[in-house]
Write a structure and sequence with these properties.
Layout lengths: L2 H6 L3 E5 L12 H4 L6 E6 L8 H14 L6 E6 L8 H18 L6 E3 L4 H13 L7 E6 L3 H9 L2 H4 L2 E5 L2 H11 L5 H5 L3 E4 L17 E3 H4 L8 H8 L15 E3 L3 H8 L12 H14 L30 E14 L4 E11 L8 E5 L3
Parallel strand pairs: 2-3, 2-5, 3-4, 5-6, 6-7
Antiparallel strand pairs: 1-12, 8-9, 10-11, 10-12
Helix pairs in contact: 3-4, 3-12, 3-13, 5-6
């Protein structure tokens, strides 16, 4: 938006109220989802050692879709344990990832096998790193050993690296390559190249309930998925392929999607207040909101994003009606809460107010 032009032209202020006669279930995403700048590269193993990625990647893909942030996820890598592999584990992981993308409407073009299609995966990761700028940063999510991330970093341009951050919650993922395979890619090596963020361990409270922190639980806590009314949720149970899932003794009797806690942290604001205390209830509620209310889109304001916060003076959701505001001609526009909080903006003739929680708003446009 041309700020100088706006300074010279009177702003058209439109006060809009959305009222209702009958309330419907609240869409919790208005309170939970918070935009964050940039893109995400996800790199998981699952083809050797632990089987948690068989569940974590599907949940991650579903959550990015549910949050309306599918375009931020530019790379979803799997089978990144590049040394040894268990062949049927690699096949199961691939089937889970591809099956989830199909069921939840994610682009198959972002899926990369980091072991069996290593060149294409590395090239794509390098390309995303090289796009990074201060206004378009990149998160490299270490949901497996950091070997493939390290290789991509070494091939990328140095100017872009200052806008890249590696995210982890697990010391095993950051230590495995160097400790067990004598790789040069130590955590210290990576930190000398890019920024690093470690959040709270997402494996916590494995004997807990739906509402305690962490995303590893006894199967009894999560077995509601298998009889869920929605087939996409049932699929998240099916991804726990038995008996192979329980080959690691420490997964016997558990449903572990702990790495997905990093996805939840990102879509709830990342380093601007992201929630490290993800729980089965919080992550399930997010997917349930998508199932109940459908697509959720955050409109970016010239690349800066919006807060996603619900205005203080909002009313309960309406059950129907046309919530499109027609400006009469194409114009730049910005939506504010009555408290002056900038909620979003764009350019066009129509403003789809379904992008925002129902309530009262001020809309400023550059119409004469």
């Amino acid at each position: 938006m041309n700020r100088n032009r706006l300074a010279q032209i009177p702003l058209l202020c439109i006060l809009i109220g959305f009222w209702h006669l009958k309330a419907q279930a609240k869409d919790i995403r208005a309170d939970v989802v918070k935009d964050f700048p940039g893109r995400v590269v996800w790199s998981g193993d699952g083809n050797e050692h632990d089987t948690d990625d068989w569940l974590a990647s599907p949940w991650m893909l579903a959550m990015f879709k549910a949050a309306g942030m599918e375009d931020k996820l530019v790379f979803s890598g799997y089978n990144n344990h590049v040394w040894s592999t268990t062949q049927n584990h690699a096949q199961i992981y691939e089937a889970n990832v591809k099956g989830t993308a199909t069921r939840w409407g994610m682009k198959s073009s972002i899926l990369y096998d980091e072991k069996y299609d290593a060149t294409a995966a590395t090239d794509k990761m390098v390309a995303e790193i090289n796009k990074s700028t201060s206004s378009n940063p990149l998160w490299l999510v270490a949901a497996g050993p950091i070997e493939t991330i390290g290789r991509a970093i070494d091939k990328a341009g140095t100017d872009a690296l200052k806008h890249v951050t590696m995210l982890s919650h697990s010391t095993w993922n950051t230590d495995h390559a160097s400790k067990d395979h004598k790789s040069k890619y130590t955590l210290a090596y990576i930190q000398n190249k890019v920024s690093y963020k470690k959040i709270k361990d997402q494996n916590g409270n494995e004997n807990g309930s739906m509402t305690t922190q962490g995303l590893k639980r006894k199967t009894a806590v999560m077995d509601f998925l298998k009889d869920h009314k929605d087939a996409r949720m049932q699929w998240l149970w099916t991804c726990r392929k038995m008996p192979e899932y329980e080959r690691p003794n420490y997964q016997k009797g558990f449903y572990d999607y702990s790495d997905a806690g990093m996805a939840y942290w990102l879509i709830t604001g990342a380093d601007n207040g992201g929630d490290e205390d993800g729980t089965p209830k919080k992550t399930t509620d997010l997917l349930e909101a998508y199932i109940t209310h459908g697509e959720y889109k955050i409109t970016a304001l010239k690349g800066k994003g919006i807060s996603g916060k619900k205005p203080k003076l909002s009313v309960l959701p309406q059950t129907g009606g046309n919530r499109v505001v027609n400006l009469g001609q194409e114009a730049d526009w910005v939506v504010y809460s009555l408290q002056g909080e900038k909620l979003g903006g764009g350019r066009g003739q129509n403003i789809d107010m379904q992008l925002f929680p129902q309530g009262l708003y001020l809309i400023n446009s550059d119409l004469p």
